[in-house]
Write a structure and sequence with these properties.
Number of helices: 10
Oligomer: single chain
Distance between the termini: 51 Å
Order of helices and strands: HHHHEEEEHHHHEEHH
CATH topology: Outer membrane efflux proteins (OEP)
CATH class: Mainly Alpha
Strand content: 5-15%
Number of strands: 6
Largest sheet: 6 strands, antiparallel
CATH superfamily: Outer membrane efflux proteins (OEP)
Shape: elongated
Radius of gyration: 38 Å
Number of domains: 1
CATH architecture: Up-down Bundle
Structural class: alpha+beta
Length: 478
């Protein structure tokens, strides 16, 4: 019987190498030879700006410490890590049906006469206890479980890519919020310096008024300038504390003060390396890799759905030992061996199985479009980043020139007023413009820094894990 069983099962096991459904192939996506927009820094062919590790881009030690804290304690990142654990467990669950299921089982069936009152023991009563191992196994003839495992493995990769995307976003958020904080610090310093200068001007104008050299309008105009600087200070202090609170949440901490390092103007410089090639985004950006992994998983589901259309073969068996008790006489122990092959052939299901194939195919088409759309969005973000860096830098240069000119004009206007050549209205106008120009310059410097970080994120930079012992990080495996 065993030889017969082996002869029957061997072709089925060999036939289980068949796998229905399409194999994954990366869709053709027309990529440009270069990004639209000005190239940054070095000539084409050099390493991409996106390949820089985040600790190489951000030189401020305090900012680096904040990023390290966020990478270890941020809740969004920790939640993303649990998604990887879920995907790993799901992969094990999905892969398990490819192998036989073995359980221990003990039975003690009792057969006897029934009636009331209960009759005495007769030879017709039987008690046959047995124990052993049960086996259940659905042969994967059409690759249903292999395709499902392929899809689960792709989902695991997608969850890992999702976590790397969270890492990139988190690093960018911490850096941008830190730059906002340093900008507000600079604005507060400008406002306090301006306030001290304008207090001196009020004192000077009041003295001139008492000496009969100036009029009451001059004093009022000087006080207008003073109060303009005064009102800015509490609002800036509010924004500083709220930005610190936001940064604290990114760090996984209760709201509190944030340490500062280098001033705003010493944080970053425009990148000295180019953006690289558009094709590199396919392996560098986590969102593009995640979209492709989801496409792989959707493609595998077509094979799972198609396998449902074919016959399913399930084996159920038992192997163990038992005994036999008849009217008090014991026989055994006896070897027990049972095998029950079950073949299921779908005949009528109102089109549900065929619709399952259509559903999986439509979901795959959706995943293809999502993958292509993600790539286009990535190209657009890089192109936007390139032009933004160039124009933000040009704007900052012009703002510096304007601020320098207004600083000189403010000094001249003050000297003209003290010399009696002009009224305080001229001082009022130039001082107001100079104060606003200083604030606008700090915003221009911040926006240029933000543009650099935005381009770095768009190129897929920042996912690298910092090496524990120093040195270069290990390269990402596509």
């Amino acid at each position: 019987m065993r030889r017969t069983l082996v002869a029957l099962l061997t072709p089925l096991v060999l036939f289980s190498a068949c796998t229905v459904g399409p194999d994954y192939r990366r869709p053709d996506v027309p990529l440009p030879a270069a990004y639209r927009g000005p190239e940054v820094g070095a000539p084409a062919g050099a390493s991409s700006f996106g390949e820089l590790a985040w600790w190489e881009l951000f030189a401020d030690p305090d900012l680096q410490a904040l990023i390290r804290t966020a990478l270890s304690a941020n809740y969004d990142l920790r939640i993303a890590a649990t998604r990887i654990l879920q995907a790993q467990a799901q992969l094990t669950i999905t892969r398990a049906p490819q192998f036989p299921t073995v359980n221990a089982q003990a039975d003690a069936p009792y057969t006897g006469l029934v009636g009331s009152p209960r009759p005495a023991l007769t030879p017709g009563q039987l008690f046959s206890p047995e124990g052993g191992l049960t086996l259940g196994w659905e042969l994967d003839l059409w690759g249903k479980y292999r395709r499902a495992t392929e899809g689960a493995r792709a989902q695991l990769l997608a969850s890992e890519d999702f976590r790397e995307g969270v890492v990139i976003t988190l690093i960018a958020q911490v850096a941008l919020a830190y730059f906002d904080l340093r900008t507000l610090d600079l604005d507060l310093a400008i406002s306090k310096r301006t306030l001290a200068s304008r207090q001196q001007s009020v004192t000077l104008v009041r003295a001139r008024l008492e000496g009969g050299v100036a009029g009451i309008l001059d004093l009022q105009q000087a006080e207008i300038l003073l109060y303009g600087a005064t009102k800015a200070i509490p609002d800036l202090e509010r924004q500083i504390e709220q930005t610190e609170n936001f940064l604290s949440i990114l760090l996984g901490k209760n709201p509190g003060p944030i340490p500062r390092g280098r001033p705003l103007t010493e944080q970053l410089a425009p990148p000295a390396v180019p953006a690289g090639l558009p094709a590199e985004l396919l392996t560098r950006r986590p969102d593009v890799r995640q979209a492709e992994a989801q496409l792989v998983a959707a493609t595998a589901q077509i094979g799972v759905a198609k396998a449902q259309l074919y016959p399913q073969v399930t084996l159920a068996g038992f192997a163990g030992a038992g005994g036999l008790v008849v009217s008090g006489d014991t026989f055994g122990p006896l070897g027990v061996f049972r095998v029950l092959p079950v073949i299921t052939l779908p005949l009528f299901n109102a089109g549900a199985l065929a619709a399952g194939v259509d559903l999986a195919d439509a979901q795959t088409q959706q995943a293809v479009l999502g993958y292509q759309q993600t790539i286009l969005q990535a190209l657009r973000e890089v192109a936007d980043g390139l032009i933004e860096i160039q124009k933000r830098q040009a704007f900052r240069v012009e703002q510096e020139r304007l601020t320098q000119t207004l600083a000189a004009a403010s000094q001249v206007a003050q000297l003209r007023y003290e010399g009696g050549v002009s009224s305080y209205l001229e001082v009022l106008d130039t001082e107001r413009q100079y104060f606003q120009a200083e604030l606008d310059l700090s915003l221009a410097q911040r926006d240029e820094l933000k543009a650099i970080v935005t381009l770095y994120r768009a190129l897929g930079g920042g996912w690298q894990a910092e090496p524990a012992g120093g040195g270069a990080p290990s390269p990402r495996t596509p």
